[in-house]
Specification:
Blueprint lengths: L1 H97 L12
Amino acid sequence: MAYHNENDKISKIKDKLSLVTSMMMDNIEEIELRGEKLNDIVVNAEELETNAKNFHKASKNLKWKVIGSVIILTIIAVVIFTCCLLILVLIVVLIYCLGVPSANRCQQKK
């Protein structure tokens, strides 16, 4: 009977050991999966950092292109405004000198 009792104890210990071993193997697999997920997160973070740097560089370039375009359009607008103003002044002078027949203010007397 003592022999049977000891076999039961050994069997129970082996069952518990088997259960603990199984749990440990499951835990190790979960840790490996977490490690893989962490590696994926690190890779994604590095890609995100690279994309952020590229976006920052591209946005700076775009900003300077827009500033250049605004400067060019401002210069063009000023030139057009100046030309229109000169044409308007020329028209007013011509109307004043040629448009009033009774007053020959712009012509020299002979």
